[in-house]
Structure formats: C-alpha cells, structure tokens
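Suppose you are handed only two things: the residues of a chain and a line of SMILES describing orotidine-5'-monophosphate. What would the bound structure be? This form records exactly that question and the answer produced for it, so the two can be stored side by side and reused later without any lookup.

QUESTION INPUTS
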Amino acid sequence: MTTQQLVEQIHKKQSFLCIGLDVDLNKIPKHLLEEEDPIFAFNKAIIDATHHLCVAYKPNTAFYEAYGIKGWEALEKTINYLNEEHPEIYTIADAKRGDIGNTSTMYAKAFFEDLGFDSVTIAPYMGKDSVEPFLAFKDKHTILLALTSNRGAFDFQTKHVDGVELYKQVLETSKSWENSENLMYVVGATKAEYLADIRKIIPKAFLLVPGVGAQGGNLQEVCKYGITDTVGLLINSSRGIIYASQDVNFASAAAQKAEELQKQMQAELTR
Ligand SMILES: O=C(O)c1cc(=O)[nH]c(=O)n1[C@@H]1O[C@H](COP(=O)(O)O)[C@@H](O)[C@H]1O
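ANSWER OUTPUT
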C-alpha cells in the first residue's frame, strides 16, 4: 500500500488507529481455547468487530513465535484473512528485525513477499546496510525504531553522541539512505513532548506511535506535537483494546474501546 492510499483511508474512516494483535493465550476468553486455532479465532473475531474503526493492524510476531509452528500458522492465517477480506487495511509486522545485508534481504522477503505485510518494524542499530534491503521493496514501508516508549529508551536513544541525541542522529542519517521515502518511524506515545523536536527533523514522515492505553500515553498530546497536514500518525493500542473483556462479549467490548479512540481521532482531524 502506498502512503497516499493510507492517507485516503485515514480521511475516509476518520481514524488513524492501529490495533495491535498481541495474542496471549492466557488472556483470551477461555471458550476460544476449544477452537482448533484459538489465536486465529480470536484475531478473526477482533478484526470482524473493529475493521471499520481502524486503518491498520499490527501483530507483534513475538506473540506468535512463542507458540511455535502453530503460532506462525496463526500469523499467516491472520495476514491472509486481512489481505483477502480487507485489502484496504494497512498491515504492520512488528518484528523489530535488522541484520547484515544478505540476512536483512531474507527478513524482507519473509515479511513482504511470503507473508504479504505492507510494512515491518526494524531496529536501526546495525546501520544503513542493514536497513536498505528493506527499503528496496516498492510500495512497502520500513518502520525504524527512533524513540521507543519504554524506560530503556533513555539507556541509549537519548544519550548525546557528538553533542546530538542518538535518536536524532538516527532520524537525520536515515534520510540519506536509498529509498528513504519508504521510511516511517516509531516514536512512543509516552514521549509525546519530544515530538516537536522530531518534527523539525522529519516534518512529513509517518510515525507509528505505540503506548496509548496500557502504557499510559496521551492521544491528544501526541496529536498536538506530531500531526501533519497529511496526518502523519498511526497510533497503536494493543492490550487496551483486545483485552477489554475476557467474556464471550470480548469482540464487542474491543470495538467499544476502539470506537472511543476513533472518536477522539475524529475530533483531532476536524480541529
Ligand atoms: O514497535 C512497536 O510497535 C513498539 C515500539 C515501542 O516503542 N513500544 C511498544 O510498545 N511497541 C509495541 O507496541 C505494542 C504496545 O502494546 P500495548 O502496550 O499493549 O498497547 C507492543 O506490541 C509493543 O511491542
């Protein structure tokens, strides 16, 4: 999917919500455990109930890899279901990959070609030649970790190197990489006050902003400093939506939480 198509969907749905499909078998409703594929059954119910309220879904691969071959099959079924039933929805493989060039190429093939995701999250630590193999794919996005939502973000990302914070160097340097127009960046919602500075370096790029809901980030604060004339934001909530209820009504409870966020986003878009 192109960035322009994503922006069109945001305006059409009046939403820049991304729902995180981080499926933990200990947290899903008990009756689903009797299904042949409980993870996919859960995802399908969540997608069926929420697809009109969001523009993107983000399965974090850890939650699938943890269940071995069955987990990977559930991930494959989920992306196939999205691509077949809702091709207008943007998909993010949250895999946080990145390695030497030939290995990155294989990761890129896995997520873009084999699974058919629109984008994948990538760690920038190994530099240009670890990221450019992902950027080479047409109409696919590489979402680079810039300033993450967790406390550990202060261990390295905000440290000064040659007088400039490392996350700012990641933003600035990545702009010179080949096909950098295919880059998006992760900035945690818990770091909203940094967004004004971030927008000075990347005024237009799309940001994936996780951390509203369970991690306490504030949607209005993120919009205040991060929104652009083409929106430029995908705000993710995972646990805050998908585990709204562990009862048989879990999907409609998730839809209710998603709608609360969508209404707040609509208000920001019409501001
Ligand atoms: O890349 C991410 O999506 C990510 C980056 C970050 O800085 N913080 C962060 O929480 N995430 C992911 O976003 C999701 C947040 O989930 P909730 O806290 O349950 O909404 C998880 O899948 C995290 O792995």
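WHAT STANDS OUT: The mean pLDDT is 98. The radius of gyration is 18 Å.
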